[in-house]
Amino acid sequence: MATTAELFEEPFVADEYIERLAWRTPGGGSRGGEAFDPKRLLEEFVNHIQELQVMDERIQRKVEKLEQQCQKEAKEFAKKVQELQKSNQVAFQHFQELDEHISYVATKVCHLGDQLEGVNTPRQRAVEAQKLMKYFNEFLDGELKSDVFTNSEKIKEAADIIQKLHLIAQELPFDRFSEVKSKIASKYHDLECQLIQEFTSAQRRGEISRMREVAAVLLHFKGYSHCVDVYIKQCQEGVFLRNDVFEDAAILCQRVNKQVGEVFSNPETVLAKLIQNIFEVKLQSYVKDQLEEHRKSDAEQYLKNLYDLYTRTTNLSSKLMEFNLGTDKQTFLSKLIKSIFISYLENYIEVEIGYLKSRSAMILQRYYDSKNHQKRSIGTGGIQDLKERIRQRTNLPLGPSIDTHGETFLSQEVVVNLLQETKQAFERCHRLSDPSDLPKNAFRIFSMLVEFLCTEHIDYALETGLAGIPSSDSKNANLYFLDVVHQANTIFHLFDKQFNDHLMPLISSSPKLSECLQKKKDIIEQMEVKLDMGIDRTLNCMIGQMKHILAAEQKKTDFKPEDENNVLIQYTNACVKVCGYVRKQVEKIRNSMDGKNVDTVLMELGVRFHRLIYEHLQQYSYSCMGGMLAICDVAEYRKCAKDFKIALVLQLFDTLHALCNLLVVAPDNLKQVCSGEQLANLDKNILHSFVQLRVDYRSARLARHFS
C-alpha cells in the first residue's frame, strides 16, 4: 500500500499514473521489447486494483467517521450559540432598564439645577445690588473708603463698578442727586483717563496681553473710541520717515493687521479707522504737496505726478483689499481715494487737452523752425473750397508752383513725438477718467491727435507737396511728391497702430466707437484724395519729361537714314535715355509705396508710357532700315516694360512690337501678318495707320496688297 501511495502525485493524471505503475513493474516498462512480459504486467495490474479497492474502503470508513464527528460538533456549537443569544437578550434588557434609570436621574438633576438657579440668580442680583448701593452711599457721603477705589491694582474692578453706577446715575432725577451724579461722572472720567493712560503705556512697552485687558474694559466706556485713536496715533510714530509714503503705509497696515486682532474685539473696525487716518492725513497731505507745486506752473510735471500718485494710491488700495475691513471694503477704499483726488480729477481732462495742444504745437513749430520754414496758411472758406473742387475735377494746378528744394516737410521724429505724447495721454485718461467719461475724454484726445498729426502736419505736407509739383511741360523737373507719399504711408501705419492699440480699448464698448471710426475714415479718405491727385500729376510730369527727351533726342533721319546700308546702331539714343529715365521712376515708385498701390500706379504709368510711345512713332516715316531700327527701339521699350511686372503693360508693348513689324514686312506678306494672333483683333484703321508710315506706302503694289 505504501508503494501504491507513492504513485499518487499532485496534480493527479490517470495516464501518467498508469505509465509510472507499468514502468515500476519488471517486464512492463519496454513495450514490444524482448524483456516485455504481458502476463507479469496483467498480474501486477490485478494486484494493484485489489490494493486500490482496499485503500478505497479504508478511506471511506475514515470519511464516515469524520462526518459523524463534524455533525456532533455542529450540534454542540448550535446549542452554545442559542445559550449566548439568551444571555445577550438578558443583558440588553438590563441595559434598557439602566438607561431609563439614568434618564430619570438626569431629569431630576436638571430640575433641581433650574430650581437652584432660580433661587441663586435673584440672590446674586441682590448681592450685586447691595454692593452697588454700598458704593453709591460712599459717593453720597462724599468719602470713598472701599479698597476697590483706593487700590490702583484693582482698577479693572473699579472700572466695572463705576460704569454700572454711571448708568444708574443717569436714571436719577437731577434736582435731588445732582451732587452725587457729578461725583460719579468725575470718577468715571478719571478712571477712563487712567485706563487710556494704562493702554498707552502698555502699547509702548509692547505688552499685547495688557493692551487686550484694558481695551476689553474700555469697550463699555464712552472713551473707547479715544483708546482706538491713541492706538492709531502711536502705531504711526516713527513710521513715515522715508520718501516712499505708500510703501511705508503698506508695511504699517501689514504689521497692524497681525496685531489688531490680538488687542481689540472688533479688529476690522480699528484697521479701517487706521487706513482712513492714513489716507485723510498722511496721503492727502503728501499728494497736495506734490501736485500744488506744479499745478499752475508746469502742466507736464503736474500730469505726470497726478498719474503716478493716483496709480500708487490705487496699487496701495489693491494691497489693502487683502485685509478684513468690513462688508464693503471696495466702496470704502474707493471713497477714500476719491476724497483725496476729487479736486484734481474734476478738471483733469481740461488740463490734459490744454497741455496736449500746447505741447503738440511746440513740437511742430520746433520742427519747422529747424527747417527755416515759415508755415504757409492754407486758406479756408468759399474761394478755397471752390479751388479745391476745381482741382479735384480737372487736376489742374491752381496758383504758382512752389519750389520745396526736395523737402517733404514730413518728419518721423515729429510723428513719434506726437504719438508718444498722445499715448501717454491715453494712459493717463484710462487711469484718471471716471468710467462714464472715459470714452468722451478719449475721443477728445484722439481729436487732438487728428488735428496736429493729420491736419497740421501730414495734410500741410500734402498741400505743400501738391503745390511743389511742376507743370507737365516743365523741363528737368525734380519730382519729390513720391517721397511725400512714402513718408505719409509710413506715418499712416503708425497712426493706425496707435488707434488700434491705445484708443480702441478705451471706446470699444461705447457709442464713441462709431464716431472715432468715422472720423478716422474721413481723414484718411481726405488725404487719399490728395495723394491720388499728387500721384496723377506726378505721372503727368514723368510723361512730360519723356516727351522732352524724345523731342530733343529723336531725329527724323533716325528712321529714314540717308545711307540704308551703313546703319551701325542697335537702337536710337532717344530710346536709351527714355528707358533709363523710366527704370529710375519705376524703382522710385516701388520704394515709395506698398501693397496693391504699387501695381495700380505702375499700371497707370505703363499705360501712359505706351500711349506716349505709340503716338511718338506715329510722327515719322520709316524706310526699311528705319523700320528695323523702330522695331529695335520698341523691343527695348518692351524690355523696359517687363520691369513693371504688370501683364497689361507687357501685352500693350507686345502688340506695339507686332505693329512695328508692318513697317518692314514684304508687301506680299502684309495680309498674312495682319491676320496673325497679335494683330487679328485690332481695328483695321490702326493697322492702316501704321502701314501708311512706310515710305513705300504710295507705291501701287503696296496699296494693292493692303487694300
3D structure, described in words:
The protein is mainly α. Helix content is 75%, strand content 0%. Among the domains are: 14-28 and 38-131; 406-546; 555-705, Methane Monooxygenase Hydroxylase, Chain G, domain 1. It contains 25 helices and no strands. The longest helix is centred in the first third of the chain and has 104 residues, at 38-141. It is flat. The model is unreliable at 379-389 and 395-400 (pLDDT under 50).
Oligomeric state of shown chains: single chain
**N-to-C series of helices and strands:** HHHHHHHHHHHHHHHHHHHHHHHHH
The backbone outline, from C-alpha atoms, is flat
Distance between the termini: 140 Å
> What value does the average pLDDT take?
81
Total beta-strand segments: 0
Largest sheet: none
Domain Exocyst complex component Sec10-like alpha-helical bundle: 157-706
Pfam family, one: Sec10_N
InterPro entries: Sec10-like (IPR009976), Sec10_HB (IPR048627), Sec10_N (IPR048625)
Coiled coil: 49-87
Structure at a glance:
With 707 residues, the chain is mainly alpha-helical. The protein has helices at 2-7, 14-24, 38-141, 147-150, 155-169, 174-205, 208-218, 224-235, 245-263, 267-292, 299-320, 329-345, 348-370, 382-394, 412-432, 438-467, 481-507, 512-553, 573-592, 596-617, 624-642, 647-660, 670-674, 684-691, 700-706.
